[in-house]
Amino acid sequence: GFYANLLLTQTPEHILTITNSKTEIVCELKKEHTGVYWYRWSQERQRFEFLVFFNKLGKATYGTNVSQDRFSVHEARSHSSYSMHISHLHPSDNGTYYCSISQSSQLFLGSGTRLSVVDALPLPPKTTQTPVSKKPVPSITKSKAASRKGACSPLVWIPLAAGVLLLLLGLVPTACHLYRLRRRLWLRIHRQ
């Protein structure tokens, strides 16, 4: 975990986008390497999927059933930064994407980028403005003010807080599973 972050940095942490759009994940490398591997952890299929290996000479090797039209890797700043572009996104692309490098027969993973592809982005509820009136404004008691619906209405913040809590709780099993997978991979490499 910690040592990997000294070798490579991956951004962004989370991407929420709509179907048929495109996105980019950036991997900054701080050590010598032979190339960059890209993997996807699929929560739905409960497995790591190899996407592409991009070597220092600019040659890409793709995984089984990975579309070269949709997935491409670009290099920037003389072998120190690579970005993976994914186009024509659809919900089957959902998952956590990892860039990775191989060092001394060990595989080091980036921090991961969680990609969520949805048919429509969630929008905040619309607030209606009351037209300005020239009539005298009646005084508002505390009980009337409390019943007004606005930006701080419980109708807004309760579902928002619940959604954030559910998202965080959903990340716990994934993090535990990835830790176990990373540990198994590390043990397997060291047994050889």
UniProtKB/TrEMBL annotation:
<keyword id="KW-1064">Adaptive immunity</keyword>
<keyword id="KW-0393">Immunoglobulin domain</keyword>
<keyword id="KW-0472">Membrane</keyword>
<dbReference type="InterPro" id="IPR036179">
    <property type="entry name" value="Ig-like_dom_sf"/>
</dbReference>
<dbReference type="GO" id="GO:0015026">
    <property type="term" value="F:coreceptor activity"/>
</dbReference>
<dbReference type="GO" id="GO:0009986">
    <property type="term" value="C:cell surface"/>
</dbReference>
<dbReference type="InterPro" id="IPR013106">
    <property type="entry name" value="Ig_V-set"/>
</dbReference>
<keyword id="KW-0732">Signal</keyword>
<dbReference type="Pfam" id="PF07686">
    <property type="entry name" value="V-set"/>
</dbReference>
<dbReference type="GO" id="GO:0016020">
    <property type="term" value="C:membrane"/>
</dbReference>
<keyword id="KW-1015">Disulfide bond</keyword>
<dbReference type="GO" id="GO:0050776">
    <property type="term" value="P:regulation of immune response"/>
</dbReference>
<feature type="transmembrane region" description="Helical">
    <location>
        <begin position="156"/>
        <end position="179"/>
    </location>
</feature>
<dbReference type="InterPro" id="IPR007110">
    <property type="entry name" value="Ig-like_dom"/>
</dbReference>
<dbReference type="GO" id="GO:0002250">
    <property type="term" value="P:adaptive immune response"/>
</dbReference>
<keyword id="KW-0812">Transmembrane</keyword>
<dbReference type="InterPro" id="IPR042414">
    <property type="entry name" value="CD8B"/>
</dbReference>
<protein>
    <submittedName>
        <fullName>CD8B protein</fullName>
    </submittedName>
</protein>
<feature type="domain" description="Ig-like">
    <location>
        <begin position="12"/>
        <end position="116"/>
    </location>
</feature>
<dbReference type="GO" id="GO:0042288">
    <property type="term" value="F:MHC class I protein binding"/>
</dbReference>
<dbReference type="InterPro" id="IPR003599">
    <property type="entry name" value="Ig_sub"/>
</dbReference>
<dbReference type="InterPro" id="IPR013783">
    <property type="entry name" value="Ig-like_fold"/>
</dbReference>
<keyword id="KW-0325">Glycoprotein</keyword>
<keyword id="KW-1133">Transmembrane helix</keyword>
<keyword id="KW-0391">Immunity</keyword>
